[in-house]
Design goal:
heterodimer, A: about 120 residues, mainly alpha, 3 helical TM bundles of succinate and fumarate reductases, about 0% strand, B: mainly alpha, heme (chain A), SuccDH_FuR_B_TM-su (chain A), Succinate dehydrogenase hydrophobic membrane anchor subunit (chain A), transmembrane helix (chain A)
Chain lengths: ~120, ~120
C-alpha cells in the first residue's frame, strides 16, 4: 500500500474524520462570534479585552486556532493535489501553506496571551 | 482502458450542474479564507493590543472602504463555506445524495448563503 507522505494523518480516513470534527469546532466559533458581534451590546474596548481574558474564551479560541490549522492543511492539501500537478510547484505551494499556518498559530497564541 | 478516448476536462467548456457549482465554491471560499485569515488575525491583534489599537480597528471597519470590502468578502466566504460545510455533514449522514434531493440541497445552500451575504453586507456597510 502506498501511503501519502503529505496528508495530515497519513491516512485518508483519519484526515476525513479530522476534517469533520474540526469543521464542527470552527462552525461553533463562527456562530458564537457572529452572535456576539452582531447581536450583543455595542462593543467597547473593556468588554472586548474582558472577553478574551476569560480562560474559557482563551481555551475556545486556541481550540479553534488549532482546529483551523488542521482543517486548513487537509483542505489545502486536497485542493493542491487535485489541481497542481507538477511536483515542484505543489511542493512550494504546500510549503507556503504549512509555513503560513504555523505563522497563524504562533501569532494567534501571542495575541491571546499578550492581552 | 483505451487511453485514446476523447477526454474533456476543460472547465470552461463543461456545463456544471448546480451541486458541482456548490462544491467548487466550497473549495474556492476555503482557499480564500485561508489567505483572508491574515486580515482577521491582524484586526484581532490590533483590537486587543491597546485602547488606541481598538479605536483604530473600529474606525477602520466604520470608515475604511477597503477594510469594509475585505470584511464583507471574508464574512461572505465564511458564511458560504459554513452552509456548504453543513450540507457536506448532512450528506455524510447519507441524506440528500440522490439527484433530486442533491439538487434541492444545492439550491438551499446557495439560497441561504446568498441571503447571509446580503444580510452581512447590510450589517457591515
Amino acid at each position: 500500500m502506498v501511503t501519502s507522505i503529505t496528508s495530515f494523518g497519513r491516512s485518508g480516513l483519519y484526515d476525513w474524520m479530522v476534517q469533520r470534527v474540526t469543521a464542527v469546532i470552527l462552525a461553533c466559533y463562527t456562530v458564537f462570534m457572529i452572535g456576539y458581534l452582531a447581536f450583543g451590546a455595542e462593543l467597547t474596548y473593556d468588554m472586548w479585552t474582558e472577553l478574551f481574558q476569560c480562560t474559557a474564551m482563551r481555551i475556545f479560541t486556541l481550540l479553534t486556532l488549532l482546529s483551523f490549522a488542521a482543517h486548513v492543511w487537509i483542505g489545502m492539501w486536497s485542493v493542491s493535489t487535485d489541481y497542481i500537478k507538477p511536483t515542484g510547484m505543489r511542493f512550494v505551494f504546500q510549503s507556503v501553506t504549512g509555513l503560513l499556518t504555523f505563522v497563524y498559530v504562533a501569532w494567534g497564541i501571542q495575541i491571546l496571551w499578550g492581552i | 482502458m483505451n487511453k485514446k478516448r476523447p477526454v474533456n476536462l476543460d472547465l470552461r467548456t463543461i456545463k456544471q450542474p448546480l451541486p458541482a457549482i456548490t462544491s467548487i465554491l466550497h473549495r474556492a471560499t476555503g482557499v480564500a479564507l485561508f489567505f483572508g485569515a491574515v486580515f482577521a488575525i491582524y484586526a484581532l491583534g490590533l483590537s486587543l493590543e491597546s485602547e488606541a489599537g481598538f479605536n483604530e480597528a473600529v474606525d477602520m471597519f466604520e470608515n475604511g472602504f477597503i477594510a469594509k470590502l475585505i470584511a464583507w468578502g471574508s464574512v461572505s466566504a465564511l458564511l458560504y463555506h459554513f452552509f456548504a460545510g453543513i450540507k457536506h455533514l448532512v450528506m455524510d449522514f447519507g441524506y440528500c445524495e440522490e439527484l433530486d434531493s442533491g439538487l434541492l440541497a444545492a439550491k438551499v445552500t446557495l439560497g441561504l448563503a446568498a441571503a447571509a451575504v446580503l444580510i452581512s453586507g447590510v450589517w457591515i456597510w
